[in-house]
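help with this:

***
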Amino acid sequence: MLVRVEIMAPMPTRNYIRSAISAATAAIAGVNVSRVTTTLIQLPPPTNSSPPAPVTGVGRRQLNHLGTTGTGGPLGPSTGLPMGGTRIEVSIVAVSSAEATTLLSTLAPTFNDMTATVTALGFAVTSTAVRQINAAVQARPPPRAPQRPFRPPLPSPSSPPSASAASVTMAVVVTGSESDFTPTVRLDLRSAVASEARVDVSAVRLVVAAVARLRELRRELQGSSVTLTFTIVTSAAAAAATVNALSSRLANPTAASAFLSTPSFPVIVTSITLPVATYMSPPSPPTATESIVGTIVIAIVVPIGALCLIGVVWYYYFRFRRRNPDKVDPAYTQARHEPPRSAPHTC
């Protein structure tokens, strides 16, 4: 269903802007400008037998600015000959008959009066009217956004899809010495971390290392602190949750001390290194190029290696035969040990 405003204007179509007319009409009707369509139709020039209708609703100065006269029709830009006017059709899509009636009553006070129409649109008109068209109108689809070329999403650094396992590493510096951390204390510390990370105790590894601190007054090394480095082996999917859970317990030294303290050993944390996840991806299968190169290398190296091995065996064999001929040829050994035979004497 449409509500159409039909306006006759004296100037050619090139003197009017569709978007400006649509915006002005939409503002008067109180609708979105996307529902308004403006069509400009060029009319033929008037004949001598029927003089053009006088232009009303504008002053003399505005007529001169628009290229018209008070009694004649519009003039051409260079020839001064009469030119045809423009029929302007502004259509507004109504979703129902009730809305169409409302739009008609809203637009009628302005577009049924030529003086009000000139004031609203800002140009001269010769006639104007508003009417309702009872026809099914299909709403124009919204403009489609330009399609961008598809780009595969980059893998997130926090949870790469190709990783199958991960490890979370964190460290704290606590007061004490290495001897304070007995196997019982270490097991209690690993159990506390494993419980928070929701993994088995066997998946938590603890390394205790003394921290050498140079005292400013005595200039001597004093091992009064140790570094506790925890490594938790977990799955790639649970690595981010493990990091978040442990980071909340290591928010400050006080919270970290309360988290790591056990009945067997109270811990006093002085420094914290927050948990960091490291993802371990499985080895990628060899590519076609790598397979071809490997085949070529094997085809070249294996025969060369076989020839070298045969050459080494022959070398040592002849060397052994030259140095030990009796062990190689028994006939030679027997000939060497037999006494020489004397030549027969003839009389």
